Amino acid sequence: MFIGHFGLGLGLKRVAPAVSLGTLFLAVQFVDLLWPTLLLLGIEHVEISPGITNVVPLHFVDYPISHSLLTMLGWGVLFSAVCWVVSKSRTGAIVCGLAVVSHWLLDLLMHRPDLPLYPGESPLFGLGLWNSLPATLAIETTMFAAGVWIYTRTTRSLDRTGSIGFWSLIAFLAVVYLSSILGPPPPSVDAVAWDGSGAMAAHRLGLLGRQASHRELASAHLSQPPHGLPVACGPGGAQLRIKVGVRQLGPAHAIRQAEINLLPFHSEFIGRRRIWIE
């Protein structure tokens, strides 16, 4: 699976809005970025074998460090720990760790039986959807489209750069995906490894950086209290964060919905009250 992983990364922005899209992409693709390096070092092995599946012409001989379920759980814990140290966000760290492990589950759908549970003499698993091009396209494009939809509902562009940069990234990923499954087999294993670890990754990160700095959460314009209405502190250091939106009922009428979130100092939700002000 390729573009489906990115679809999951886009969709996870709704679950972990404080985590950057670049970090989510890195999490869902972490082992696929690790794998080319292990190929170049001769630790893991792949062979180009056209016809081994109807979609991907690669025979994954062994990749126990990057793609076994046990080691992927370890990579997920490590990635989660780093995220927590950097951000101090428990939710973000958990989501990123699970995103790393999700790679094995999604690959399980597509691969022929070549995914190990653990390094060594492990049984191999895979449901083999790569044997059907229509099924592969249906699953991956649906996941990707759903992720794009969720991301565009969760964030909004601040200017034309945020809009053009985002859709350029989406178009780039779509072109890379279609060329990889509809194009000719790669010329060599080294080409597979260098392509996965070099220019393509740098280009994706560059597009991510350009668009991310020009987008914000769709609810960000409601995240600050209105002018003249301070944030108050409640018992035990709790914070009252007030969000106000306006719904127009007619030319001369408006109703303000003031949504008050009661949050303790450590930012865990403990209560919500909704009031209406005419």
Describe this structure in words.
The protein has 278 residues and is α+β, with helices and mostly antiparallel strands. It has 2 domains: 216 residues, no CATH class; 54 residues. The protein contains 10 helices and 10 strands. The strands form 4 sheets. A 4-stranded antiparallel beta sheet has the order 7-8-9-10, with no helix packed on it. α1 packs across α2 and α8 runs antiparallel to α10. The C terminus is likely disordered.
Major β-sheet, in short? 4 strands, antiparallel
Please report the total strand number as a whole number. 10
The structural class is: alpha+beta
User: Element order, helices and strands?
Assistant: HHHEEHHHEEHEHHHEEEEE
Strand content: 15-25%
Q: What quaternary form is this?
A: single chain
* Major β-sheet strand ordering: 7-8-9-10
Shape: globular
Name the poorly predicted regions: 222-278
User: Measured on Cα atoms, how large is the radius of gyration?
Assistant: 23 Å
Would you kindly provide a brief summary of this structure?
The protein has 278 residues and is α+β, with helices and mostly antiparallel strands. The protein contains ten helices and ten strands.
Topology, please?
Blueprint: H1 3-15, H2 21-28, H3 30-40, E1 45-48, E2 58-62, H4 64-67, H5 69-87, H6 90-110, E3 115-116, E4 124-125, H7 133-154, E5 155-157, H8 160-182, H9 189-197, H10 199-212, E6 215-217, E7 232-233, E8 239-250, E9 253-263, E10 271-277
Antiparallel strand pairs: 1-2, 3-4, 5-6, 7-8, 8-9, 9-10
Helix pairs in contact: 1-2, 1-6, 1-7, 2-6, 3-9, 5-6, 8-10, 9-10
